Amino acid sequence: MVMPPVPALYLLGHGLELTFKAFLLSKGVTLEHLRRKLGHDLEKAFTASKENGLDSLLQSHALDESVLALLNVMYSTKELEYIVTGAKTIPHYPLLQNFAIKLFDAVAASIGFRHRLAKWTLNESPV
Question: Is 123 part of a structural domain of the chain?
Fold first, then answer.
């Protein structure tokens, strides 16, 4: 497997974080709670989102949670923003990408955003 570029992993993580937080804000979670309790932890944000009803909008699978957990190891510790040497376990990018697409589509519709202009899936992915 070829490692995706680090900026692509970072931007995917950042997009996931913002999508989770947009959903949580729409459910009445305070900005203070997002800052103090969730920070940049994608797994905490995903768990909080599920506790606030995300499961009714998005059917996630164990594989989604596994690749999110792998990304979170590097994302929450800022390893994708700063040079950190050593071995890393990289999540499979197409799986992360599909999860991000599913999440965005589900959340965007629930908070009043329009649909994406481009429609594509793993089989048609430009990456």
Answer: no
Instruction: Return the C-alpha torsion angle 47, 53, 56, 57, nearest 10.
Output: -80
The pair of three-digit structure tokens given for residue 91, joined into one six-digit string:
């999540």
C-alpha span between 47 and 24 (Å, rounded): 11
User: What is the total count of domains within the chain?
Assistant: 1
Q: Is residue 127 domain-resident?
A: no
Is 122 domain-assigned? Answer: no
pLDDT tens per residue across span 35-79 = 999 999 999 999 999 999 999 999 999 999 999 999 999 999 999
Q: b/e per residue, 39-52, with b = 16+ CB within 10 A? A: ebbbbbbbebbeeb
Rounded distance between C-alpha atoms, residue 56 and residue 113, angstroms: 18
